[in-house]
Amino acid sequence: MAQVVAVLDARPAAAWQSVGGIPLVTRLVRSLELAGVERIRIVCASAQPLREPGARQAGTQVEVLEAPTEGPLPLRAGEGAEEVIAIDATLVVDRRLLKRLVDGKAPLVIQPTPAGTGEPGRVRLARLAAAAVAALGSGDAVPGAERLDPGTLPTWAAEVRGPKPILLMDGSLPGAPRSVQDALLLATEKHVMDAPARWVDPHAENAIVRRLVDTPVTPNHVTFFSLGIGLAAAAFLYLGWWALALPVMFLVGWLDGVDGKLARLRLQYSRIGEAESLFDFTYEQRRGCAADRAAAALAGSMWAGFVACSVWAAITAGVHLARLFLASRGVGVPEPVR
Q1: Structural domain boundaries in the chain
Q2: Whose CB has fewer CB within 10 Å in the chain, the N or C terminal residue?
Q3: Helices (H) then strands (E): counts for the chain
Q4: Is 75 helix (H, G, I), strand (E, B) or coil?
């Protein structure tokens, strides 16, 4: 495989504005890391103060270069590489698009891209020969380039267990921070959920995420807080304190989705987040037993509560069996990503 380096044109001030809790440049750096790119060069305007690019993996090599605000990227931005993934850093780029560039061969140009403040058709996202890095931002066609239309890519995403639109947005346009953040937040929604988690919980979860996204609160903070109040909810149920247990149970359910959404929005993953299901198991087993007692109390007897829980379990199993049957016939199964 050709030696490839990612070059981000971060000379526009808009490239450093925060969208979804992190600067656009940082979002690209973390997305490139997750796509398997280890060498990244950020080209900044000479007058800009240098900032922390926000890489999270120890093996990532990030170099910051200075260049005049106007004009083509300096050729030295691609020095030491055979090919360059060149990106206008005011863009929000879907990781699946970046992966196509990582796996592709130069010259490969992603078009159409948002026009932004420049002319339509200019090169803003491409894999180029290192000597052609100055073509980024050019309105001229790149000779011999393969053109990849983002709209032709499969939308299935394992991360959310369902379809997820291919995001390619311009963060430099007026009103972009809010609209881009909303699109990114919507893209964090998982699809394999029960009815309340799919149709009710997202409204509360997203409201909480919007409050937290620009604060120092991390997904791990939310995970540990959720664990604490989850154990409290189980204790309240066990003691029969229904008035206290019910609102706390709702809050636990919402926070269970908030930490994952916050991590996906900021690209702030951790080993603790990967092990979250173990924390959930700790209190959900106790909470589940206590919830059965609550169902029995509400139904008027242990037998009636057992019947209510059994009917709900049977309905749930029936729905999943039907979905499994349809999937075995190819209904709703995504096409393989090539």
Answers
A1: 4-157, 175-328
A2: C
A3: 10, 13
A4: helix
pTM listed for this prediction:
0.82
Residues contacting residue 290 through CB under 8 Å, at least 6 positions apart: 234, 237, 238, 245
Q: Are 66 and 33 in contact (CB under 8 A)?
A: no
Tokens of 157: 């995403």
With vertex at residue 76, the alpha carbon angle to CA 70 and CA 77, rounded to the nearest 5 degrees, is 70
175-328: CATH topology:
Four Helix Bundle (Hemerythrin (Met), subunit A) (1.20.120)
C-beta of residue 117 within 8 angstroms of C-beta of residue 145? no
Strands 83-88 and 125-129: antiparallel
Q: What is the pLDDT along the chain (338 residues), one digit of tens a residue?
A: 457 899 999 999 999 999 999 999 999 999 999 999 999 999 998 766 667 788 888 889 999 998 888 888 888 888 888 999 999 999 999 999 999 999 999 999 999 988 655 566 789 999 999 989 988 987 777 888 999 999 999 888 877 777 888 999 999 888 888 999 999 999 988 876 666 677 788 899 999 999 999 999 999 999 999 889 988 888 888 888 878 888 888 888 888 889 999 999 999 987 665 555 555 555 554 445 555 555 555 666 667 767 777 787 788 788 878 877 887 777 655 554 44
According to DSSP, the β-strands at 91-93 and 168-170 are antiparallel
Which DSSP state fits 213? T
Domain 4-157 has CATH 3.40.50.2000: no
Interatomic CA distance for residues 30 and 74, integer angstroms: 23
User: d(Cα 137, Cα 205) in Å, to the nearest integer?
Assistant: 39
Identity (one letter) of the amino acid at 3? Q
Residue 144 carries which DSSP code? Answer: T
Tokens encoding 218: 């991390």
Q: Strand order of the sheet with strand 146-148?
A: 61-67, 39-45, 4-9, 83-88, 125-129, 108-110, 146-148
